[in-house]
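so my prof wants the structure for this chain in the tokens format not the other one, which i didnt know existed until like an hour ago. anyway here's the sequence
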Amino acid sequence: MASDRPSLRLLLAAPRGFCAGVERAIQIVELAIAKYGAPVYVRHEIVHNRFVVEQLEEKGAIFVEEVDEVPQGRPVIFSAHGVPKSVPEDARARDLFYLDATCPLVSKVHVEAERHHREGFEIVMIGHEGHPEVIGTLGQLPAGSISLIETTDDVAAFAPQDPNRLAYITQTTLSVDDTAEIVDALIRRFPNIKGPHKEDICYATTNRQEAVKAIARQCDAMLVIGAPNSSNSQRLVEVAMRQGCPAAYLVPRADHIDWAWLDGVASLGITAGASAPEILVDEVLRAVKERYTVSVEEVTIRQEDVQFKLPRILTAA
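here's what i got, hopefully its the right format
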């Protein structure tokens, strides 16, 4: 009986889930399949979420790691994280038709990097080594043009060629607070360093972290719905813990929840990373409601209305 279930206050963070860049990237794959027929090839996961990837595979997408795996005559799409310049060059060399689903806010960082390089600045990038977005950004310029900084210790150890000719850029999906600390350390060491005109961490990353901060102290535990290779989802777990939530867990789907995590929990927070669809949030909510008598409160810190244009070739009649 429902009355036998323990009570649980559930705080649902908003904004959460899909951002405009993720929605655009998925639409590009779906429209390409509709226009050119299956299969359409996608280099790397279009966004970091297995559920999304599997849904697109069912519709006719084939995911590969490099363009040399794409057969002649079939389109290839580059993921939302962005790619090094060598990737479209390889596609052109093989005479492949390609579509670029890079998030426009990642492309903005690429443009900044190129501008700094043209103006003769040595560039520092704040980001996580090995992340596809970082690999793509580093690959916009000749090897060695950008130095990667991950921590304030890296700032202390960094030895620029000319401390007065420095500029920095950042990955778009970082912890806002961690990045601010690293930027402060850079400015203290190099007062003349140039930053972006508008910060590189994207609106969606910032909003989702602020939404978590708004509920973290009221929660005994928090579930962050997202993939283990999703940078922005991992950051939400970290933000929740730092803001005073005693426990936070990253779960790709409801069947990954260890229900022992919620023993003794009276108040549970739920959010989702920018590449996690709302259907997975609904799935988690249903699983929680099967085990608890739930009261749901949605805590909205901001409305989002950002939309990015799709490639004209896909939208033209």
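also thought this was worth mentioning. DSSP finds eleven helices and twelve strands in the chain.
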